[in-house]
Design goal:
The chain is α+β, with helices and mostly antiparallel strands. It has twelve helices and six strands. The chain has one domain: endopeptidase fold (from Nostoc punctiforme), CATH 3.90.1720.10. The protein is 41% helix and 13% strand. Strands 4-3-2-1-5-6 form a six-stranded antiparallel β-sheet. The longest helix is centred in the C-terminal third of the chain and has 15 residues.
Length: 314
């Protein structure tokens, strides 16, 4: 994928122009981030919200946390670019101080949630909404595993964009839900499947996998470990021997995720399918678990401020 791409050209934005409540959307380094961006038909793989004290709030491997904003903007190793968006208030004006305080208070209430949902689960959640199945045999197997990985469990874990959405949608502003970003599912994209370094991808996701996922992907991992990265012919032969994962199997796994998330999620997915086919509107109250970084970027409730960081050369 084009790591310089964005739906709207973004001008450079100084960090000092940010304020509490601004939404930060970024593309992380690595093949899993590329897959998340491809699946959601956008350029982003991660989301955070600007807090006070020079921090942002985000879901990370250690839990929902504060993190120094300046340190993130300077991190050109783990991120390709970072864009900033701002929520509209009444009549497209800025939110007032009381609203922003409510958003920050809600975001802070999520701090320390011990079991954040990782990026593989985010990929599964996006695939559950989009129903966008790749053709590559290993990619189909990976999506099948990601859908299982996205099944809700008994923890309070959440995906990165869910933290941002809930900070607005569930804050104390009245009436309840007044600040919820409007989520509109756009047309299903036609971008080609990204070029993937399969060895790097398996190395990235292996620590995230549950036992069933490791078992499902064990054979491809062994085949990859036996090949040199440059052995393209060998990779093609190895991937051709992957177990067949049908569209029907992927759809069943998709519906299992939506069913576990409740009837509202299933209705939202049906309406999203209709919109993707050009047939109808989306659910105005999406399940927060199914909100992606690109959903936040495409929301009519936000405006692009600019680009905080761009890695030289992409």
């Amino acid at each position: 994928m084009d790591k310089n791409a964005n739906t709207t050209p973004a001008q450079a934005l100084p960090m000092d122009d940010l304020r509490t409540g601004d939404i930060l959307l970024m593309l992380g380094e690595g093949p899993l981030s590329d897959l998340i961006a491809w699946a959601s038909d956008g350029p982003y793989s991660h989301a955070a919200v600007v807090a006070d004290g020079g921090d942002l709030i985000e879901a990370a491997a250690s839990g929902v946390r504060r993190y120094p904003l300046a340190q993130r903007i300077a991190d050109q190793v783990n991120y390709h670019f970072i864009d900033a968006y701002r929520m509209h208030g009444a009549n497209d004006g800025p939110l007032d101080a009381a609203d922003l305080a409510d958003v920050l208070a809600k975001a802070e209430s999520l701090l320390g949630i011990p079991y954040p949902i990782d990026q593989l689960a985010l990929l599964g959640a996006i695939m559950a909404v989009r129903g966008k199945w790749p053709e590559h045999p290993w990619a189909r197997l990976l999506v099948r595993v990601a859908l299982d990985h996205a099944l809700p469990d008994a923890t309070d874990g959440m995906v990165c964009s869910e933290v941002v959405y809930r900070a607005y949608a569930e804050c104390a502003a009245t009436p309840a839900g007044r600040l919820a970003p409007e989520i509109v599912v756009g047309e299903r994209g036609t971008a080609p499947f990204p070029e993937i370094d399969w060895k790097a991808l398996f190395d990235e996701i292996w620590p995230l996998l549950k036992p069933g996922g490791r078992q499902a992907l064990q054979s491809p991992q062994r085949q990859l470990n036996a090949l040199r990265s440059s052995d393209i012919a060998g990779l093609d032969i190895a991937s051709a021997s992957a177990p067949d994962v049908s569209d029907e199997e992927l759809e069943r796994a998709r519906q299992a995720v939506l069913g576990r998330l409740g009837a509202g999620a299933a209705v939202a997915a049906r309406e999203s399918d209709a919109l993707l086919a050009g047939e109808g509107p989306v659910d105005p109250k999406p399940n927060p678990r199914l909100v992606s970084p690109q959903d936040l970027a495409a929301s009519p409730s936000v405006a692009l401020l600019g680009r905080l960081m761009q890695r030289p050369g992409g």
